[in-house]
Structure formats: C-alpha cells, structure tokens
Amino acid sequence: MIPAQFDYVRPTSVQEASQALAGDDDAKVIAGGQSLLPLLRLRLTYPTLLVDVGRLSELQGVHDRGDHVFIGAAVTHDEVVRSGVIRDACPLVALAAATVADPAVRHRGTFGGSLAHADPAGDLPAVALALDAILVTSEREIPASEFFVDYLESAMHPGEILVGIKVPKLGPGWGFHYEKFHRTAQAWAIVGVAAAVRRSNGSIAEARIGLTNMGSVPVRARETEARLRDLDLGEAVRQACAHAAEDTSPPSDLHAQADYRRHLAQVLTHRAVRAAAGSP
Amino acid sequence: MSEIDPAAIAEQADVPTEPKQASHEVGRARRRKEDARLLTGRTQWTDNIQLPGMLYVQFLRSPMAHARITRVDVEAARQLPGVVAAFSGRDFAAEQGSLPCAWPVSEDIVIPDHPPMAYEEVRYVGEAVACVVATSRYQAADALEAIEVDYEPLPAVLDMNEALTGTSPKVHDQGNQAFTWKFGQGDIDEAFRDAPVVIDRTYVQQRLIPTAMEPRAVVCTTDGQSFTMWSATQIPHILRFLLAATTGIPEHMIRVIAPDVGGGFGSKLQVTAEEVLCLLLARRLGKPVKWTESRSEGNLTVHHGRDQIQHIMIAAEGDGRIRGIKVDLLADMGAYLMLVTPGVPLLGAFMYNGIYKMDAYDFACTGVFTTKMPTDAYRGAGRPEATYALERAIDELAHELKLDPMQVRRLNWIKHEEFPYTTIAGLTYDSGNYEAATDRAMALFGYDKLRAEQADRRDRGDPVQLGLGISTYTEMCGLAPSRVLGSLSYGAGGWEHGSVRMLPTGKVEVVTGSSAHGQGHETAWSQIVADALGVPYEDVSVLHGDTAISHKGMDTYGSRSLVVGGMAVLQACEKVKEKARRLAAHTLECSPDDIEFSQGAFKVKGTSQQKTIQELTLAAFAAHDLPDGMEPRLDADATIDPENFSYPHGTHLCAVEVDTETGQTKIRSYVAVDDVGRVVNPLIVEGQVHGGIAQGIAQALFEEAVYDAEGNLLTSTMADYLLPSAADLPTFVTDRTETPATSNPLGVKGVGEAGTIASTPAVVNAVVDALRPQGVHDIQMPCTPERVWRALQ
Ligand SMILES: Cc1cc2nc3c(=O)[nH]c(=O)nc-3n(C[C@H](O)[C@H](O)[C@H](O)COP(=O)(O)OP(=O)(O)OC[C@H]3O[C@@H](n4cnc5c(N)ncnc54)[C@H](O)[C@@H]3O)c2cc1C
C-alpha cells in the first residue's frame, strides 16, 4: 500500500526533537521504521509529521555503567546482537534480538523502537520485563513493569522520547534463554519465553520469566517463578512450569487459539527454564 | 550506395571457415545468461518503464464480500491535487466488456458476466469499483479516500457445501453451481462390489495465493490509434488476442510486451481487470498510464489457487491390488470464471489414477461459486490436487492392510517394460521407469535405517516422533495436443511457434513464442540451437515476449515451454539446415545428398571440401549465387503441435520430525529423484525442482488464504500469509533418472511443475506417518503446529 502524505524532520538533539513533537499534535517519532512504516503503508495511522530520532547521539551506544548496562534507544537489533558488553552482562537481550525477523529488519529496527511500540508479540518487551529494565525517557525513568500499558500502548505520553534502557546486571550464577515459537524463521512469535535462572548447588535459586504474546502486554509468569524458587532440577520443574499461563489472557487469532497458546506457554517455559539452568 | 562486399563483411565479422563449436551444449550445466541482468537490476521490469506524461492509476476496491452498489460518487476525488480523472464502474459499463473465460468445460456451464470494474454488484472483497488517474501514484492513492460508495450488503457465500444447498444465498442469479463434469472408464460399480478393502477419504485443498516475486504491473500507451501495453504477464500473445476480443479494439492495433517478468506460477496466466482498464484508460485519456499493485492488493486480487474438497474412494484386493478409484470433487471457483478457472480441476481429472493400473475409474467435479477471489491456475493446476489425494489415499490403503506403503505402490504401478501404456483415464504414457527412480530414491534416503529409527522412537515414547512420507507421481504436462485440448472444450490450441534468423555475420537470433518469466529460456534455447546448427552458444540470442517481435505464440504455462516451444525452435533449425544444405551443394557443386552436416559444417562426403554454416549464411545474404528458386535467406519458422503430452515422473521421500509436545514439524531430510527425460541444462532443472519442492512444502506446512465469516481476507499481508524461506527448508537431495520421452526428438519432458506436484503429499504422508500410533489418520493442510497438536489431543 501507499502511505498518505507526511512531513519529515531529523532533529539533532533530544531537545530539538521534543520541540518538534510539541509543535504538532499529530507528530510521531520514527526510529528504524520497521513497525511504523507498515502501519503508514496500510493507512492505519496518519501522522502529519515524522520526527526521526534514529541518529540522535543521545540515543546511541551500549555503555557499561557498573551495576547496569545502558542501551541507547536507537541501537539496532543487529548492534545489540554484536555487542560484547551485552553478550557479557545481559545476554538475554542479545539472544532475543537475534530471533527478530531477518537481517534486513535487524539492521534497521531498534531496541528502543521495539519497546516503545509496545507490541506484546515483539520479542524484546518480555525480555525487558523479565530483567526489570528501566526505561529512560526524555522526561523520567519508567520501570518496565509500568511501561507496557496495553496493546501497542506504553506509559509514555505523546511527545515523550525514549532515550535508552537501563538493564540491570545480574550477578554470576545466572543463566539465560529465549525460547521463541514461530512457524517460519521470519515470523513473529506465537509465544515466546524469556527466562533468567540463578542456579546454586544443582537447584534453581531464583527464576524470572517474561512471556511474549500471552496477553495485550508482555507478562511475567509469577506463579511459576514462585514455584521454581529453591527447586531441584527434575520433574518438579515441569510441574512448576505448568503454571506458566496462569493469570494470562492470550489472544485467539489467525496464528493460534488462546488454549493452544496457554499450552505452549507451559511447554516452552519448561524448555526455557531448563536451558537457562544449563540443563539439557 | 557502395556495393556490399561479402568478403569484407566476412573478415570483419570473423566468419569462421572452420566449425567453431565442437562440444555438446545440450546437457551442460551452464549458468543462465539472463541472470546477470536480472540480478544486477540492469533490466526492465514493467514498473521501471517511464514514458513522458505518464499517469498513475489506483483502484478503489470493495470492502464487502457481497453487496449491491447503490451509489458511487467520484466528484470529490476529481477535485484533489494531481488528479486527472476518476471513474466509477458505470463510466466504463458500455465499453469494458466482460473478462474472458476461455475454458467452458461443459454444456451446463454458467459463465456470469464479469465486468472489469463492478457497477451493479460486488462479489468479493477486492473487486474494483472505481479508479483514479493522477500525476503521481501517491496522489492517486490519496484520492481513492475521497470516493464515496454506498453498498447495500448481501449475504456472503463462503462454504461450498452450503452454497450448493437450495437455501443458500446466491452469488449470481443463475445459482451457485458453475458446472458439473463427469468422466469414467471401466465398470466402477463392479470394482467396488464386494471389494475386500475400500478406502474412503475426504481431503481439503486449502486456498493458496500464488506469490510471484514481482507484483503485477501494467503500462499502456497510445499514439491515438494503436496501443502498446507492457504487462508483467506470462501470456503476451493470448493477452493481445483477448484484449481485442474483450474491448473490440482491433488486434492489429494492440501490441503487448512482457518485458522481464519476475515469476508467475500461473498467477500471470490471466487477462486481468487491470489490464483491460489500463487499455481503456489510455484510450479515453490519450495518455500513457501505469498501474502497479502493492503486495496486499495482490494478495486480495491476484487469482488464487487450489481450494477443492476431494472425496476419493479406492477399492482394492486384500493384497493391496487396486481395483478402481472413484473421485468426487467440489472446486471453488470464487466469484467469477476467469481465464481457465473451470478447467483447472479437470487438468487433474486424468491423473487421479497416477502411475497405477486399475480396471475402473470414475471422476466427477462440481464447480461452485462463492463470494471470494476467483481461483485459477497455480503451479501444477489440477495435478498437485490429484496426486495429493491419490498418494494420501494409497498410504491409507497400505496402513489398512498393514503393508509397507512402498510395497503397495510397487504392486500397482506400471512396469517399465509395459510402456507405452494407455491408462484407465485414456492417456498414453510414452515412457517411464518408476522402478529405477524409486530404487535410487530409496538408496539416497536410507529408508530402512530411518524406519528403524522410527521404531526406536516409538518404543521409547520419544516426544519427538519420526515419520516417513512417500510420493510417487507422474503428470501430464507440456500442453499440448490441440486436438486433445479441443476435445476438452479448451478455447485454444496447444501449438507453439519458433523462428531462427540467421544474421549476416553468422550470429543467430531465435524468436520463441514461449514467454519466459524466470525459467531460463534464453539459456536453454541457446544450448539447443548451438547443437542443432553447430554454432557457438555465445552466438545465439533469444527474443521473446513482444507480440511485435514474436508474432505468434501460445506462451508459457503447464510445463510446456521446452517440450513445445523448444521443439519448435529445434524444428526451425532443421529447416535452416535443409536450406543451407541446398546452398552448400550448389556452392560446392555436388548433389544435396552428397552433403553431410556435422558440427556447423556442410561437407562433401569423402572429401575435405566444406562450407561452414556462417559462410553459407553470408552467401545467402549476399545472394550473388543462389540455386534457382531459392529465397535469399536461410531463416526459418516452425509451428509445432506435439502428438502427446509429456509425462515426467519421480519418487520423493520425506522424513519429518514431529514434536508431539508443541505440534511443531521439522523436515529432517528430503530426497527427490525425478525423471524429466533428457536434460538440456541440469542447473535449470535443479532450480525448477528446488523451487517446486519449496512451493509444495509450503502448501503442506505453511500457506493458507483465510477468509473470515464475512468474507474478508485475513491473510492480506506477508505477516499473515506465511511463505517459507530458505531458513525454513531442509537441504534437498536431488537426483535424476533419464528415461527419454518418445514424443519429441530431444526426448525431453516438462519440469516446471513436477516438484510442486510431488512434494505436498510426501510431506503430509510423513507427518501423518509419524503420528499413526496415536491414531492420527489425517491432518488438514497446512499442517500447522496447532493442527498437529490438536490432532493429538
Ligand atoms: C518483516 C518484519 C518482521 C518483524 N519481526 C519481528 C519479530 O519477529 N520480533 C520482533 O520483536 N519484532 C519484529 N519486527 C519489528 C521490529 O523489531 C522493529 O524493529 C520494532 O518493532 C520497532 O523498532 P523501530 O526502530 O523500527 O521502530 P519504528 O517503527 O520507527 O517505531 C515504532 C513505534 O515506536 C515509536 N518509537 C520508536 N522509537 C521511539 C523512541 N526512541 N521514543 C519514542 N517512541 C519511539 C514510534 O513512534 C512508533 O510508534 C518485525 C518487523 C518487520 C518489518
């Protein structure tokens, strides 16, 4: 399809970008454009002005800041996958980013854009949630647990710009896995599970689990997390993971019915937890 | 004017006096000559064509599956910037005619009026109701939003079985039954009477969307009298003829050019509303117009494929020998009959017996109208459907009798020594060797070892189960004998035209009526001509796809290009050689009978006297000394009508791992041994086989066009209509056996559709085989993880 007409600006600072956004009620931020352009082309949205934040220096780079890693909002999926800092300190982000679409999309799409877009089917929101990331905007800091409000809706108000994401470093002993279930390599997740597991003495000390596409927002599998605490690896883990879909309300759509998604969440959580725990 | 000096030309052009070409071209794995330009973009796709003053067309499409149009107001659109014109369907009612159906298959057929732009009633989501012509594509798209259309909703008709009940709402006043068609041989009742085993199954061929890499595009221009149309079409010749027939514009005033075309798979074997309307818009506005579809517009309005419900019954003896097969089809036509819509299921009518022998066969098909996009040819057209139902049912028969599925096939197939063999469906298979292809495939696959692994996984209760799927197949392709097509009420013949132009410098221009759109004709035809005339491969160029250059043709579909079009070119070469022989005899002062031709040179037998074909070409051009009555040229044309279809065959084997916890399937290995007769270019064959298998696997596991209960297409984008990519497909192990066809001089058979025909049942047979111990006998295509999982619950 063919998008309707819009204006385009590429400001040089976050402040300038904020001004541009403030001056036009129907303005929209664009970063990699990998989610926004399809919406424009299908004429599902009609912004009058696109404010391109993709090259703002404040939104670039991956920085090791001691207790956390700061990932610029405009860092692309591809940069995330290749970042040594991310691989060392918060590999789950890289593991999930590597499953996004195809190389072309990963070279343009951004980490910040994925979160700002707040698509529960996106792979990164569940990761940010599982890792208790903090989203730094042009105005404030928002914990991931408060950031995702509804389907394609974040806590940011119009005109607010996501500058970067603070991903807390988890100490030694943590293992990670992102289990994505999709029909083709380039397809979106039917269900995805982001798992971080801390092991001690052959048992699971602590687990954090974020679920992709199991509701209108990414969700944590809290019941399973609680049941996994201090659990020996073994059949009990499977039983704990059978609670993964509790308190979720997955969609029924072309790609899967809700009951199937619930079932998948249980199976995949088990797989993700075992993998994160380093157990074959 | 200075006199032409042949000697000077000969020197300048380096005309060889010794033959230049020695090795055989046919059979060489040459890289395709067209690829450099296609891959680097130094080519012309229809959408690249820019003409001065060009205008851009966009169509407003119905959002309703079925409705009466009560008002269309384009006035506001006309006022918008850049807009040159806006029209409703009614504005063209008097001149747009009805889109053609060239295959009225039966006496009882209903061919409803099919206006290119609807103006009374819309019958599927996506049907064009109005259009805007503007100075840019964007302005045209913007202006569509200003058009007001009032619809009075009518009930959608979506389910074929319901559509045929007396209480169903009607798609057309004439009712929802498009046609019935029956065919039978042998005593089917006798075959089923007291049959020890009867297999009775119903399969659903889901609706598919052919997805060519290049979307459709049309450019049309006029000089006030005549028209030139560029279209991303498979059928420039047929399109020209039918544009004339549809609009009344005289045929000689229309030139159609198919420039480089990026794939078709049948979807560009069509006369589309957009083509007719671009022609009429160019006439009305006196300006060049262009229309290029977007991908989601294409998903809605490129004709769809398959969509049949197949009821198949096999009567067999207790040892697995087949007595007879009975088939009853419902075929979804969609809302209208397009170019060959009703004929597609009939292309399978002679194939449900496959490679097997039996005493009786019965086939019936009912075409059904629904309020969906019309269906039409899609890679394989009718034959994948037939092969699927048959090969699935043979597996069921084997399971019922607790026999190995390959054993049942071996028991029933035509043995190599029985060819030529006239089947129960009345076709004469000229050649084949099913044993050889199967033995090779079984060896490459490691069948026995995989069976052992399957048993082991079953014993262990492994959550990942293994299934093995077999598909043997043959198909009638290379359409083909005009006589036969005529007896099936097809609207045209199956001949093809080719010509060979000998240029003064000894280079060769080949003109073919086949219209390549990705197949590699330029390479394959060059190889054939190089061998036939004994000229270097590099000295041959191939022209196609322009009705002003290639004045006669039946175009490319149905795996017909090589076996019909290629053979026409070969025959034209023979005629060139005959003329050259006479000229050689004249020049060398001997009888034509004393001349022997070898590798580009005409020799006087038993002497060293010779003339190369290039020397003779130049001599014919100079025409200073020709035999009496000889035209001053060696060029020749040929139009051939083959005596039979071609019958490629093969055996495909597939191993699939099924994760019983999630339902996810994974193809572990895939072996294809195809027999496509003699091979002109193994690389091209390999490419066709790979692409075909991928498309067949896509039907088995991934693709499905889905309409909701209101008749909206849910799979209008590539995010929802899932195409597999290389990342989703295994490495294909391919090999060939070579049993030459006897129906053409090169012994070649078609290969374009073979992979698609064989692979779908091989994959689904494997998925079902994996789950048999769990009591699974069928899974509806595409076998999505969710469907597999549900089958296990
Ligand atoms: C074919 C295809 C397949 C895909 N598959 C997947 C997949 O499997 N998994 C997956 O997770 N994603 C997938 N994506 C989406 C991809 O990850 C996008 O990169 C991501 O969703 C958005 O990032 P972007 O930079 O492109 O954002 P844009 O498209 O530029 O913007 C998206 C939204 O976020 C807002 N926004 C962007 N940046 C900011 C900012 N800094 N501050 C405030 N608002 C901002 C925009 O206003 C817009 O509303 C796919 C995309 C495509 C095209």
Automatic annotation (TrEMBL), chain A:
Keywords: FAD, Flavoprotein, Oxidoreductase. It is an enzyme of class 1 (oxidoreductase). GO terms for molecular function: anaerobic carbon-monoxide dehydrogenase activity; FAD binding. The keyword Oxidoreductase applies. Gene3D superfamilies: 3.30.465.10, CO dehydrogenase flavoprotein, C-terminal domain, Uridine Diphospho-n-acetylenolpyruvylglucosamine Reductase, domain 2. Residues 1-172 form the FAD-binding PCMH-type domain. This is Carbon-monoxide dehydrogenase medium subunit.
TrEMBL record, chain B:
Residues 21-32 have a biased composition (Basic and acidic residues). Gene3D superfamilies: Aldehyde oxidase/xanthine dehydrogenase, a/b hammerhead (3.90.1170.50), Aldehyde oxidase/xanthine dehydrogenase, molybdopterin binding domain (3.30.365.10). Residues 40-155 form the Aldehyde oxidase/xanthine dehydrogenase a/b hammerhead domain. The keyword Acetylation does not apply. Its EC number is 1.2.7.4. GO terms for molecular function: anaerobic carbon-monoxide dehydrogenase activity; iron ion binding. It is an enzyme of class 1 (oxidoreductase). InterPro entries: Ald_Oxase/Xan_DH_a/b, Ald_Oxase/Xan_DH_a/b_sf, Ald_Oxase/xanthine_DH-like, AldOxase/xan_DH_MoCoBD1, AldOxase/xan_DH_MoCoBD2, AldOxase/xan_DH_Mopterin-bd_sf. This is Carbon-monoxide dehydrogenase large subunit.
